[in-house]
From TrEMBL:
L-ornithine binds at N164, D222, S226, M227. GO terms for molecular function: amino acid binding; ornithine carbamoyltransferase activity. It catalyses: carbamoyl phosphate + L-ornithine = L-citrulline + phosphate + H(+). One of its GO terms (cellular component) is cytoplasm. It comes from the Archaea. It comes from Infirmifilum lucidum. This is Ornithine carbamoyltransferase.
Length: 314
């Protein structure tokens, strides 16, 4: 079987994304029934490279590999020779001789692409500056769980239109038939080169978040200053605050009662979202976080054991 990577959701069809979400629901049901361990990655091990700190990704990915019968082996950038200048292509060729897959959380997406180019085993994006596909899968699993569907669901993302989470949310959403809106300052508008013209042409861009959230099913936000953007902190705060904060006043503009509020976490409470909202009845952020585990399992099985016996587990 030819190697398949998981770097963005551009390379995956709508049917493949739906299959991953369906598998994640099955894996979640099994876990809820007490099936915490499954043998489908027995004897396999996965390298996990972290250039950036992580809570949800490290925890969910490690548990996912372990509960599927495999061995997760985490590395910080400082533990590898990358920190001393070893070329990425050399690290890729060495680690892929030892491991059955390599997952990486990186500052630059181009480094992830190089890792994949020289690795002989699947490479999985645990986050880059441009894309966060594992998060998008968990987001759409959670939307389907809460709203009963994805096709036709209206989603308003409020914040940075070039955010890695938004990019993956938009790419997957357009493929799955969701209606994607983004409210963002003009200087932070989505990049058609990153999204692709087929996605970019189908999203709606607003400068006023009150217009973007009107009559939507989902209000989504992320931090205004991501890791690696600390030098832009003051400039970004001037651009985003106070207009683009998701607070109770903005949510009044939705104009319906059955909407939900999402955030990929970690949240900077009092910046992009208020404590009142994230702790409120509309917030489903911890369900999102939980579903990272189940969608990660689905991706691992799709790449490493696509013929896992689902029927035996039903």
């Amino acid at each position: 079987m030819a190697k398949r990577d998981f770097l963005t959701l551009k390379e995956y069809t709508a049917d493949e994304i739906r299959l991953l979400i369906d598998d994640a629901f099955l894996l979640k049901r099994l876990r809820q029934r007490g099936r915490f361990t499954l043998p489908y990655l027995s004897g396999l091990n996965v390298a996990m490279i972290f250039e950036k700190p992580s809570t949800r990704t490290r925890a969910s990915f490690s548990v996912a590999v372990y509960e599927l019968g495999g061995l997760p082996i985490p590395y910080s950038a400082q533990e590898l020779q990358l920190s001393r200048g070893e070329p990425i292509k050399d690290v890729a060729r060495v680690l892929s001789r030892y491991h059955h897959a390599i997952a990486a959380r990186v500052f630059r997406h181009s480094n992830l692409e190089e890792l994949a180019r020289f690795s002989s085993v699947p490479v999985i994006n645990m986050l880059s500056d441009l894309h966060h596909p594992l998060q998008a899968l968990a987001d759409y699993m959670t939307i389907k769980e809460k709203k009963g569907r994805i096709d036709g669901v209206k989603i308003a993302f409020v914040g940075d239109g070039r955010d890695n989470v938004f990019n993956s949310l938009a790419i997957a959403g357009v493929k799955l038939g969701a209606k994607i809106r983004v409210a963002t300052p003009r200087a932070y508008a989505p990049d058609p080169e990153i999204l692709g013209n087929d996605v970019y042409s189908k999203i709606e861009v607003y400068e006023d978040p009150a217009d973007a959230v009107e009559d939507v099913d989902v209000v989504y936000t992320d931090v205004f200053v991501s890791m690696g953007q600390e030098r832009e902190r003051e400039e970004r705060f001037k651009a985003f605050l106070p207009l683009y904060q998701v607070n109770s006043e903005l949510l009044k503009k939705v104009g319906r009662e059955d909407f939900i509020v999402m955030h990929c976490l970690p949240a900077h409470r009092g910046e992009e979202i208020t404590d009142e909202v994230i702790e409120g009845e509309k917030s489903i952020v911890f369900d999102q976080a939980e579903n990272r585990l189940h969608t990660t399992k689905a991706v691992l099985l799709y790449l490493l054991n696509p013929n896992w016996s689902k029927t035996k587990e039903l």
